[in-house]
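Methods — Computational structure assignment.
A single polypeptide chain was analysed. Its primary sequence is given first, followed by the predicted tertiary structure written as structure tokens.
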Amino acid sequence: MKSHSKIGGGALVVFSLSSVALIVLESQRSGLGFNDADNPAVMIRFLRERLDIFTFSGIVSVVMGVSLSLAALALWEILSRKRSLVLQSGTLAAFAASAFFFVNGVLRIQAPGTLLHMAGMDGDWGIAGYVALQIVGTQGLASAGGFAFGLWVICVGIANFGSRVFWAGLSWLGALAAAGMLFSAFFGPLLPDLDLIYPVYVVSLLLVLVVWPLLVGIILVLKTEPAAPTS
């Protein structure tokens, strides 16, 4: 139990810090004047000038995938004292999120060299290749990873209400933030006031990907075993 808490907590802290690193790397790109990641012409120029930033973001995404799988396995061991369909479903969602983050990271590491080679032969090929990378990677795999991770956070929170492995308030925080993220992501485009929905999505995303795993991870790392009874 203690080793599982340390491993799971440490993995969650790594996941949280990796999320922060990804935000920092994206901020660096914007700070260099490459603000619109959806503009393929801009991003091809960015890859030519700062391939390192894009590659580092891929490495960070791979770390997120690996750390999440470790965290999911550890929390499964900690929380699965009773057979729970909720926890089982959440763990499957975490493994899916782990795979999505991992594959998106591999795409970001491996694709830029090919994209630049294609752009060198024909600029339109490079632009088309980046469009595919952006849609499949960022809009597809990364988004799906975030959504699946949110489902895991909700399921872990529900399971924790019974076991109280960590503070129940964090179960509420994770569940509400993840629900807000999922609602705004799926139903936000259907609502008329996007100016209100987008901030909700961003704040919820930060709470789910950074704050919740960091706080839960620290609690699990610091968690101590109850003292053995003395005769």
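Note: Residues 226-231 have pLDDT under 50 and may be disordered.
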